[in-house]
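[agent] plan:
  1. take the single chain provided in the ticket
  2. run structure prediction with default settings
  3. attach structure tokens to the ticket
  4. add a short note for the reviewer (M.T.)
[agent] executing step 1
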Amino acid sequence: MSGGFSDHAVADATNVLVVASALDDADEHLCRDVLLADGSAPDRVLGVTIATSPEAKLSTWQNHLGTDPTYDFVSVDGAARSAASPAADVPGPDGPTVDRVDGVTPLDVLGTTVADHVEAGTAVCFDSITDLLEYVDEQTAFRFLHVLTSRVRTGGATAHFHIDGGAHDTETIALLSRLFDVVVEAGDDRSERE
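[agent] step 2 finished; step 3 output follows
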């Protein structure tokens, strides 16, 4: 595995924090490595995207994981939409479902939309906490992520959450790390179990 971390620790984890710069390839490689940590691609991948387009994420995943997994997305969209009800775009019978929620949507609506997709065997990729922190303060994000990681755990899914380590101070990373079973950092040759 190119990420250099323990496959076993990541494969056994429910919620993983991926700390890497979004500006280099390490973030993309760690995403792939976490999704493949148990040796094979998951059956279903749910992407939660805030600043990255679902189309870009889908293209990257299909290059690394192939076309066999079912791909779906919850995308925070800057376009003006009703905050009360997310809109769903279905690109075609074989394409992913993309539920779009407005960037001003309350976090509980975003959380419910994501939770509606979480089921046993789903691998969730949340991209990214750094982008989430542009919308809400640190404590609000912590509470939201606490609820979401709990929902992933009780739903029998797995998840990894991206954060740009260079964009946040060590106290923020340390606070958020408490929510995760494993923290994987670019350049580390090991995983850290929190």
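[agent] step 4 note for reviewer: Residues 17-186 form a domain with the Rossmann fold fold (CATH 3.40.50.300).
[agent] ticket updated
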